[in-house]
Amino acid sequence: MKILITGISGTLARGVAYRLTRRGYRVIGIDRRPWPDVPEGVEMHQADIRKRPAEDVFRISRPDALIHMATVTHFTTDTEERYRINLGGTRKLFEYCHEYGVKQAVFVGRHTVYGATPDSPLYHTEDEPPLAGAAFKELADLVAADLYAGSALWRWPELNTAVLRLCYFLGPSRGGTLAGFLSKKRVPLVLGFDPLYQLMHEWDAEEAITLAVEKQLRGVFNVAGPPPVLLSTVCEATGRRAIPIPEPLYPAVLGRFGFPYLPDDAIAHVKYPIVIDNKAFIEATGFQPRYTAKQTMEGFRWH
Amino acid sequence: MSFFDDPQVRRNVDRLPIDFDDYGFDRFGLSKKALIRAYSPMAYMYRHYLKVTAFGLENVPAQGRALVIANHSGGLGADAAMIFTSLLLNDDAPRLGQGMAEYFLTRAPFARPALSKVGHLTGIPEHGEQLLADERLVVVFPEGARGAGKLYKDRYKLVRFGTGFMRLALKMDTPIIPCAFIGGEESFPQLFHIKWLARLVKGPFVPVAPQLIFFPLPVACQIYYGAPMRFEGDGSEPDHVIQTYIEEVRHAMERLISTGLDARPHPFMLQRMPGPDKERAP
Lengths: 303, 282
Prior knowledge:
The complex is a heterodimer.
Chain A: E1 2-6, H1 11-22, E2 26-31, E3 42-46, H2 52-61, E4 65-68, H3 79-99, E5 104-110, H4 132-135, H5 140-155, E6 160-166, E7 168-170, H6 177-181, E8 186-190, E9 196-197, E10 199-201, H7 202-214, E11 219-223, E12 229-230, H8 231-237, E13 241-245, H9 250-253, H10 267-271, H11 279-285, H12 293-298
Parallel strand pairs in A: 1-2, 1-4, 2-3, 4-5, 5-6, 6-11, 7-10, 8-13
Antiparallel strand pairs in A: 9-12
Chain B: H1 7-14, H2 32-49, E1 53-55, E2 66-70, H3 78-88, E3 97-101, H4 103-106, H5 111-117, E4 121-122, H6 125-133, E5 137-140, H7 144-148, H8 164-171, E6 176-182, H9 184-187, E7 192-193, H10 195-201, E8 207-208, E9 222-225, H11 239-263
Parallel strand pairs in B: 1-9, 2-5, 2-6, 3-4, 3-5
Antiparallel strand pairs in B: 6-9, 7-8
């Protein structure tokens, strides 16, 4: 079986590629970024997913499955480019899937699409609408991409589509949204708030994505590992210093005084929890995380 | 032993039928440490200040989901605090009552984490379902803020009930334990409300009582738990069916309230009412 991974040079995607090759799958990768020490058994194409060479990969290599991980966040990319990659790119890839007879497509999205508001429930289920775009405009393109990928379920029923809403992950690669937030010794909390954060080990996240392809998953699924922990616990267990900052001053300190940079709207994600219910995914795949929250966080300690 | 670390509270928190993680938190953000810190002063207040006596605690199941439905009074939430304390201090089967918090509280800094660390989540139906599905004990005051803000002249009259709790009980197949709190109205007799101040702080009401501070008088209180009630259905019933079920619960609560009012020698009693001394075991 040939599996195409878009955005293969990303931290999580590389891990997925290793896993799949070890299990005997042929892996093809597309990314704008290079992967210099690409392992044997991975056929790497340095290309943009919206350009002709990407379509050629579909036409010539005829992959059986697609794992779409070529999405970008506000941490690296400006608004216009984000819409082009996240929405334009996702649309193109699903069209190629349809055109070139791909049987399985897995869109790897984020659990933050549910949005963080004071009155939203814990343990979001997949039937809840992703509301993040309303309060956090830097996530609107990812919400739209998530919904667009989901629309492939009725648009092209013969294509087995799975949309994964993955919670935060931490791991040795030190990549990912939460790792970015914890990238410095000092972590800015909002004074008087301490939300639950849901995180899983990077290797468990890679395993979950791999399982989604292997089990030919169809539908929208929340992917999470161990139960959530408080943000203050995350800071403590990873050896960071949680610095509570009064809300009016919060935007002013971001990116200064040794704090990481965040867009203004991200403050809601530091005040309120986004916690997802992973029952449906576990039922469909039998996924069992290997690492507890404690092991995951202690592996990410500040040295 | 200290004011913030009561041995009975600590012992009973350890016996709660709840799974805690490596850091002493449960999957909803409940903290063992915070429970001991919050319930220890409440236990002192329960024993020595409001001198609470609880009757019928055997009606509360030792484990498994259940809904305690209680009357609300006394403006400050001291009634809720004492009901939660009576459930935890029940040495036969300690339970953690988890409340459905007012929206205005869960938006506020400090209040939100403080409440969720002791098990009170924003009062939305999803949270009720999630807690019951996890075999927790949920405490609901169906009168809501309307009930808590009742004036002294309307004491012990139940105001309109919300229907959410009954739909929740039916959908989650959960027994309802009616509960009456006696003494709340005398400990904080509300004379009137300051409406403009309530609007200013975005709270439901700002009450004024003769003691002029937001603290209850040391009136002895009693709590009565009634026999569990079960109703047939799945929560999708039309409103008139739900209303007849709710009337049954309301009647059960009214019976408990009148039993409680009749049992005390006079309203402003300061002596603890003798009871089934279970909840005061050392």
